[in-house]
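In this section we walk through a basic example: taking a raw amino acid sequence and producing a predicted 3D structure, encoded as discrete structure tokens. The instruction is simple. Fold the sequence below.
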Amino acid sequence: MLSILSEGEEKLERGYELKRKGYGFRRVEERVEEVLGIQGRAISSKGWTRDRVEARSLFCYWAVRELGLSNTFIARKLGMSQPAVGYAVRKGEELARERGLSLER
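The resulting token sequence is shown next.
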């Protein structure tokens, strides 16, 4: 039980630290574009091309798991359903792990 609580506390602290450093919705979007080498707000643009799907997935992962933003908030901002955001978070986690990508430089 204590490990679950401490894990939750660590996630909160991580989110606060990133926000203190200036990470928010737009900054995460810029970082995704930077690490994936894409331009022009691919995250919020409609379409199912591979680069857009990867960008949205990585964005959702970092926004939800790193910053602590809710699936509901992200779904509303990106025009996605909540289940789609949950799926994107899992895909983004896989992408980050496979490619060794990190939100912070």
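Looking at the output, two observations stand out. Helices lie at 2-20, 25-36, 50-66, 71-78, 82-99. The two ends are 33 Å apart (CA to CA). In the next section we compare this with other chains.
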